[in-house]
Amino acid sequence: MMKRALVSLLAGACALLGNAAQAKTAPLLDCPLRDAPYSVGSPLIDLLLNPQARALIQEVTGQDVTKGPPDFVGTRPPTFASILTIKEALAFAGGDVSRLPALDAKLRALPVTRADKVARCARYDGVVPKLALPAGKGPRILLFDKINGFRDVPSVNGAREALTAMAARKGWRMVSTDNGAAFNPRTLKQFDVVIWNNISGDVLTLSQRKAFQTYLNTGGGYVGLHGSAGDPVYFWDWYPDTLLGARFAGHPMNPQFQEARIVVDKAHPLAANLPTEWRMTDEWYSFKTNPRATGAKVLLTLDESTYSRQGRFGEPLDMGSDHPLAWTRCIGKGRMFYSAIGHLPATYSHKLNVTLMEDAIAWAASGAMCR
User: Fold this and answer.
1) pTM reported for the whole predicted model
2) Model confidence at 25, in pLDDT bands (50, 70, 90)?
3) How crowded is residue 133: how many other Cβ atoms within 10 Å of its Cβ?
4) Which of 24-33, 130-139, 143-152 has the lowest mean pLDDT?
5) CB-based contacts of 53: which residues, under 8 Å, 6+ apart?
6) CB 219 within 8 A of CB 193
7) pLDDT at 34
8) CA-CA distance, 201 to 320, in Å (whole number)?
9) What are the start-end ranges of the H helices in the chain?
10) Would you place residue 50 in the very low, low, confident or very high pLDDT band (cuts 50, 70, 90)?
């Protein structure tokens, strides 16, 4: 018995030494919030990665956040912990959020060690992938599906399959990657448009963010699908506030999937091959603000009278008569398109949604002056 305990103790010590050695030699990327103090505004995943932070949460709030659903409290992406703070986690669990100021003070007193920084950066990529474009003369497309937050496998796979078939049919040159290190000036220069396939969670380092912003400002294209605008919390304000121009508010849960009427603005440049309206079934997003307020041109709106708009906790998700579903905007010399359609895999084979995606990708990749 004593021998077994000694072996266990030695094994634990070796593991700790191994972790310490790894923290000393692991690459320290320029990941966002790498050096930030711990706080109630930290990504939940970063608090879960630190034993002292976890202990403080339980001490102050009485909640053991490690006991939550694995999809929510996992420390290996994809995990909801990447797109929540402790505030949202407590609210979801019915915990007491009134203790957050006291918790914040205690968290901020924790040291941020090199091991902490390495752990924070582990979910980002530092090695540039080798991407080989197919031969041809069609638009050059990078399909990107790195996901640190919520990964809905059916929607991600459905979109990838539809886009792969679309590229083959249209003669487009497309390659895919889940490596954020592809976002560097040399690699991005090879592509006319980048498609974010239901991306969730913060996925780019600071230098990768800068490369992406420069790429768009100098004429690149962006197409975002469904979950790429569906995170409850963002840790990169430029992405929801400038690129998208709207932040996610929620989607109905009673029921989650409903048929609704979609209305097309026939004056929009991308409306030529679409009817004035159509009906389809999907998960319908609401946003906290209308992207029109930031200069976006809304192509599709939802008729709210055709579906129920009650959120997970019974909250209303009404946006009124102008409920945006898909829109475009200019980003410097670049072009941006986003569509909230796409949770159900069947939406990616719906004839009108396929037409929408084909025309949107061609427009974003065109290099034409954005207006």
Assistant:
1) 0.91
2) low
3) 13
4) 24-33
5) 38, 46, 47, 107, 110
6) no
7) 98
8) 28
9) 2-25, 44-48, 51-61, 70-73, 86-93, 100-108, 114-121, 153-170, 185-188, 206-217, 238, 351-365
10) very high
CA 298 and chain centroid, separation: 21
DSSP characters over 228-274: GG--S--S-THIIIIII---EEE---TTSSEEEEEEE-TTSTT-TTS
Six-digit token string for 328: 């475009």
Counting every residue written for the chain, the total comes to 371
Please classify residue 297 by burial: count the beta carbons closer than 10 Å to its beta carbon, then call 0-12 exposed, 13-18 middle and 19+ buried: middle
Helix/strand/coil percent split, the chain, to 5: 40, 15, 40
Identify the DSSP state of 159: H
Orientation angle between helical segments 351-365 and 153-170, nearest 10 degrees: 70
**Chain centroid to CA 62:** 30
Q: Which helix (H) or strand (E) holds 224?
A: strand 221-225
CA distance 142 to 125: 17
With 90 as the cut, is the pLDDT of residue 150 above it? yes
258-264/286-287 β-pairing? unpaired
Structure tokens at 362: 């061609």
Cα dihedral 271, 275, 278, 284, rounded to 10, equals 0
Structure tokens at 131: 């991407």
C-alpha distances in angstroms, 143 versus 6, 39, 162, 182, 280? 52, 35, 12, 11, 25
Q: What pLDDT, on the 0 to 100 scale, is given for residue 28?
A: 86
What does the DSSP 8-state code read for residue 349?
A: G
